[in-house]
Design brief:
Number of strands of chain B: 11
Shape of chain A: globular
Order of helices and strands of chain A: EEEEEEEEEEE
Number of helices of chain B: 0
Helix content of chain B: under 10%
Oligomer: heterodimer
Number of strands of chain A: 11
Structural class of chain B: mainly beta
Number of helices of chain A: 0
Strand content of chain B: over 45%
Chain lengths: 113, 118
Amino acid sequence: QKEVEQDPGPLSVPEGAIVSLNCTYSNSAFQYFMWYRQYSRKGPELLMYTYSSGNKEDGRFTAQVDKSSKYISLFIRDSQPSDSATYLCAMSISNFGNEKLTFGTGTRLTIIP
Amino acid sequence: GAVVSQHPSWVICKSGTSVKIECRSLDFQATTMFWYRQFPKQSLMLMATSNEGSKATYEQGVEKDKFLINHASLTLSTLTVTSAHPEDSSFYICSARDQNSYFQETQYFGPGTRLLVL
């Protein structure tokens, strides 16, 4: 069983829709959770960083963590064509800089104009 | 914002040759850099952690004699794939951590290098 499971998609939604991206994990030691956006042939860029259960909002993006269910989500409101990318969840046991990140496989998202 | 560059962005080589990939932090100093590999439709897999001035730490299953890592300065780490074979064809991505911050959110990724071994 993989430590982090993420539906690879692809996921296509019309512009303006709410997008829900999800990851589940099996290691209860994970305490820090991240969402990265990766455009084609580019490196990942950090979108959201959370460490507690509950919601964290940043503009059109909301990250949700449910540690009891080992489930995290990223919601994108008012989706735009520029949101089309692969979204990767990542998690770690501590937030120290040298700590290893464990990634999901990524979900490829396309926003249709 | 913090920028990490990689060179080359893509490379095609013959089986048996060695390929060197550079990772540079352009506007910050990085005591720690990470090397990842990403196969199609698979997740980023950490290969090794590179610390300036010391030996790299390799993840289980990664051959340190095949993937040579050198972190000679606070802004440059190199990954050399020695005697490359077709199964080494992949997307190699580095990341660098700003030495002025201890936390993960200041880990910045490069644009990646696509390697194709014929």
